[in-house]
Design brief:
Structural class: mainly beta
Order of helices and strands: EEEEEEEEEEE
Shape: globular
Number of helices: 0
Distance between the termini: 40 Å
Strand content: over 45%
Number of strands: 11
Largest sheet: 7 strands, mixed
Amino acid sequence: QVQLVESGGGLVQPGGSLRLSCVVSGRTSRTYAMGWFRQAPGKEREFVTAITWSGFSRDYAESLKGRFTISRDNAKNTVYLQMNSLKPEDTAVYYCALDTANRAATEERWYKYWGQGTQVTVSS
């Protein structure tokens, strides 16, 4: 069974930074893509970013380019989301997800496994 566990969320002031982590455990495909999604209160879950196994291909939501960076350490089975210059509108529950077909897709339907989410609150 595959498990994804996010960490690193919390309360941060506008303009601050946070680094989220997602650790993958269990039997997965040999190579897999990872994605981050988020869901703000009263809104649908939306794509944030994704990365292929090699890290060569990465995709970002257009509105987040330049502030958010995805990376991964395959030796540690961990994917990271570095978030800088945070804004109140970034407040959401952030989820990591795993795509066994290594697509780094933007659509939720391609992701088979999901974490429970970690809360990020940007407020003064």
